[in-house]
Structure formats: C-alpha cells, structure tokens
C-alpha cells in the first residue's frame, strides 16, 4: 500500500470519528452514558473478533500473559477517556468536544516528561501556549465560560494521551494491533456494564430509541475506524498519521453544523483554529527537522 492510500484510510478514520461525535451526542437523549459505552464496545468486540483471529493465525508467535496484561492496562485508559468524554458530551457541543479531545496531541509530550523524563522537541512549548490560547477563546474569553462538559472533555484528552504513550511503551513491538483493539474494547465493555449495573437505570425502549447511534458508534466508529487506523499506520509515518487523524476535530465541527445546527462565534472559531494549528505543528515541525537532519 502506498503512503497516499494509507493517508486516505487515516483521513477516513478521522471523518468517521468526527461523525461519531454526533452519534455520541444524539444518543444521550435516550440512554445513559455507561450503557452507551457498554453497548458501543460490545459491538466493537464483535466487529473486530474475526480480524483478531485472522491476525493471530498469521502471527509468527503467540502473545505472552504480560502482553495481554499490558493490553488490559491500556484498555483501562481507554475506558477512563471514553467515560469522561461520554459524560462530557451531555453538556457540551459536538464542535467543542472534537477540538478539546484533540488536545491529546499536545498533551503527549508533556506527560512523557512527567512520567519518563523524556523531553520533547522545543516546538511543543509554544504549541502548548497556542492551544491554551485557543481554549481561552473557545470559552468566550472567560474560563468560567467553559462548561463542566468542556472540562470533562479536556480530562478525557489526558487519558487519550496516556493511552498513546503506553501503546508505544507496551504494545508497539508485538505486531498485534487488532488484538490490542479487541482487548481494549472488551475491557471497556465489561467495566461499562459493571458501572451501569451499579449506577444507571436501563430500559429496553431507550436502547431501541438510540439503536442507530449505538450501531454506528460500535461497528463503524469503533470497530471499523480503529481497524482503518491500525492498517493505515503500518504504511505511513507517525507524524503523517497524527495529522490525518486529528482531522476528526474539523469533521466534528462540520457534521455538528450540518446535522445538529450548531453554530460558533468568530471568537470561538478562532480558538478552534489555534487549537488545530497547535495540533498540526507539534507533529509536523519535528518531523520536518528530522528529515532535514538525515539528508546528506
């Protein structure tokens, strides 16, 4: 597969995730957050299981118990991020959720410093300030203008960042990305079900009412899009992949406007633009510099 086709797959994943924000938001009119998470990731498990079995048959060696334990730990991070995001979607817009979730791109290097003393490229620091300025404008010039949902989405971005970091440290070298997805999804489905039993009231008619959104989020947004990501990232560079996938923020804003009638002020749009510029720059500049350094 060429770089161009791989990037098209990643762009498609970003578009699906952008539309997924609309499904997540609409589903909250009918079902509780953790029931949505349970059903979403149960469907995702069913979607990727045949692919994981095929991957296992083609793998040169079996995974160890420590591999599965690492996958489960990453699944805990995915669950925390998904839970915070889903609850936050109840009190924020699809557009805000898309851009604030994308802050994980800037958070990754900061957390790498805090956890592993791994210092990032210097461009990270101005990008972080740019992203913070974008959040400030997105809030309307007052941090209290951010809703509780907005802050929950920012918190979920922390767990997305942690997930990326630990995937690189735990799961990058075993060559089993689809099995990783399967274990992550299973962990999320089980934990979501446990929380649902203890905290939420579930009624069948509510699930039926949200069935289209649940089916989209489970099969397409989770199962198919994560598979597109896993395949596409094998044939392109990490910076290119991050840039293509971060397009989910733009697609979230587009679909939010087209399907939910969301509108944004000029100040808010400027804030979103700053966040997106920070997300792109933090990946693109280091990649360009590395490429320049390897040239004779």
- Helix and strand run: HHHHHHHHHHHHH
Q: How many strands, what sense, and barrel or not for the largest sheet?
A: none
Structural class of the secondary elements?
mainly alpha
Contiguous helical run count: 13
Average residue-wise pLDDT: 81
Plain-language structure description:
The chain is 80% helix and 0% strand. With 296 residues, the protein is mostly helical. The chain has one domain (3-294). Helix 3 (65-88) packs antiparallel against helix 7.
Quick take:
By secondary structure, the chain is mainly α. The chain has 13 helices and no strands.
Task: Tell me the layout of helices and strands.
Elements (H helix, E strand, L loop, with lengths): L2 H25 L5 H26 L6 H24 L5 H8 L2 H13 L7 H15 L9 H24 L5 H23 L4 H6 L1 H22 L5 H8 L2 H13 L5 H29 L2
Pick out its properties.
13 helices, 296 residues, globular, mainly alpha, 80% helix
